[in-house]
Amino acid sequence: MQNNVFNENVDYLYQVQTDLEAVEQLKKELAEYKNQEKNLKKAIMAEEKSIQDEIAQTIRKRKIEIEKVYDDQIDANKNKNRSVRAKRDKAKSKRVDERVSIETAELTEENRQLQVEMKTLFKAQHVPSFCLTKMFYSLFMTKRFLEFLVLLLTILITYAGIPSLMYTLSIHVFFKGSRNIPFLCTLTVSLTLFVLGFIYILILNKVKIKHYDTLMEGRNIKDKIAANKRQMKAIRNKINKDKDDSQYGLDKYDDKLAELEEELNQISQEKQDAMTTFENETKQLLTNEVNDRRLGKVEQMKADVENMEEHIAVLDEDIQNSALAIANNYGAILGKDFCTPAKVADLISLMEDGTADTVSEAIAAYKGAGR
């Protein structure tokens, strides 16, 4: 049988070539199906991820929309609360001022009378009107802490600020370009200090000493006024510290604030209930809606994958059977090395060009050529 095969002509090799090419074609088809299967599985994974992303995005968007509805109501409630509270504070402040005015009315009137008394006294004693000022008493009849501060600041300005200013003006304005600038500057500063000191001593002698008794009466009146002001300040502080607002007639504001607080609690509870419903029911409904709309495509793609897998299994089995048949029918005779489409084609070429007439001669010629 083997000898008969080796004596076969080129038609035998044609049949071998056809069978080998059929197997190669099955292998190409199998590779194509496997590639399609691979791409389809990737597409399924991408589609499933896209579905999950859409579900997550839809749930997140709907949750934000629901929260915004209630948050807007809460913000509006808080704005109303701030507005009512501001009106309440304004009304309370007004009523507190009225209460302070009432409780300090006697002290206020006493201070007014004291000021009139002081003006009348100074006028009757021909004391200059500038002696009524706080500045005069700070500079010439210093007694209280704030007056000492004013006196200290005045001394600093007089003996530091004004001389510095006059010195600067002398250099850059009054005596600019003069050869005797140092002397002229020193003279200007000295004259300035002399004039200021002269004015102070003049007022001291012509006013304070001359009207000392009247000025001391004025001091006593100012002390009474200051004492009354301290008492008025104490009364205001006491009223401000009073936590009982019932006397100010703020009930309508308190009722409105309580109503807004109740409304805020109700909105907060409704929001909590809505979010609970969303978590327990709405999320699943949104998920089902997306799945119902898009899972059909995924299921069809999975069915296509199953069909491909079945076809691949059939092709794989056909390839195995064909390869086994080739091995049994041709491999045992031609040898495994010659059971390839390329080498069979070479053998056919050798027989077609007349180099060999039989299969055995073609094999010998192929080997003799050193291929």
Provide a compact summary of the structure:
This protein has 371 residues and is mostly helical. It has helices spanning 2-6, 10-103, 105-124, 134-140, 145-174, 181-209, 212-241, 251-334, 341-352, 359-368. The radius of gyration is 57 Å and the shape is elongated.
Features:
single chain, 371 residues, mainly alpha, 10 helices, 87% helix
Find the count of extended strands (DSSP E, 2+ residues): 0
Helix count from the secondary structure assignment: 10
Helix content: over 70%
Report the portion of residues in β strands. Answer: under 5%
N to C succession of SSEs: HHHHHHHHHH
First-last Cα distance: 27 Å
Instruction: Categorize the overall geometry.
Output: elongated
Task: Profile the largest sheet.
Answer: none
Mean pLDDT: 86
Describe the structure.
- By secondary structure, this protein is mainly alpha-helical.
- Helix content is 87%, strand content 0%.
- It contains ten helices and no strands.
- It has helices at residues 2-6, 10-103, 105-124, 134-140, 145-174, 181-209, 212-241, 251-334, 341-352, 359-368.
- The protein is elongated and about 160 Å long.
- The model has no long low-confidence stretch (mean pLDDT 86).
Write the topology of this structure:
Layout: H1 2-6, H2 10-103, H3 105-124, H4 134-140, H5 145-174, H6 181-209, H7 212-241, H8 251-334, H9 341-352, H10 359-368
Helix pairs in contact: 2-7, 2-8, 2-9, 3-7, 4-5, 5-6, 9-10
